[in-house]
Amino acid sequence: MKSWLIKLIVLPILALSACTGVRFTFSGVNIDPNIKTFSVEPYTNEASDGPSTMAFTFTDELTQYILRNTSLVAAPQGLKGDIEFSGAVTGYRVTPISPGGGEQQQTEQQRLTITVKTNFINNFDDEKSFDKGFSFFYDFPGNQNVQDVESEAIDVIFTQIITDTFQAALADW
């Protein structure tokens, strides 16, 4: 009885998918079947602070994320893909978010915020192209320097920004 019910639900979805050519996944990725390749131009670092390697790290992590989560192939070096990503790390800012008490007036919490601007081009559907900024933050204790948490903070922030960028470009939620 249970397998019959599963067949009743799954078979129409597979038949619909085969007829329309649209690939459905449980990750929400919905890629036009004509799109086979992607390219990620090296992001630039336009932020006045932060590690000089941020843009390279972001470019590499975005490329790896797309390879892991799609069946797309990276376009050969120097060629543009069916979809294209480019952009810049535009902001790196540390701000106090929770004032402390006492004589030293030390901040109890600080926030590192990073902003990345992405230009996405879908060469098969220009309406899906965008030029958009993505931002995320990482909070840390006020008695630490940003350099103490920078590696972990950048990892957390880039993971979220890459997920947001990927969802905006390739998922139709």
Strand % is 25-35%
- Listing every helix as H and every strand as E from the N terminus to the C terminus, the arrangement reads HEEHEEEEH
**Main sheet specs:** 6 strands, mixed
Radius of gyration: 21 Å
Topology (SSEs and partners):
Blueprint: H1 2-20, E1 37-40, E2 44-45, H2 54-69, E3 73-74, E4 83-98, E5 109-122, E6 130-141, H3 146-170
Parallel strand pairs: 1-3, 1-4, 2-4
Antiparallel strand pairs: 4-5, 5-6
Task: Provide structural commentary.
Mean pLDDT is 87; it is low at 16-24. Strands 1, 2, 3, 4, 5 and 6 form a six-stranded mixed beta sheet that branches. The chain is of the alpha/beta class and 173 residues long. 35% of the residues lie in helices and 29% in strands. The protein is globular and about 70 Å long. Strand 5 (109-122) and strand 6 form a beta hairpin. The protein has three helices and six strands, in the order αββαββββα. The relative contact order is 0.16. Helix 2 packs across helix 3.
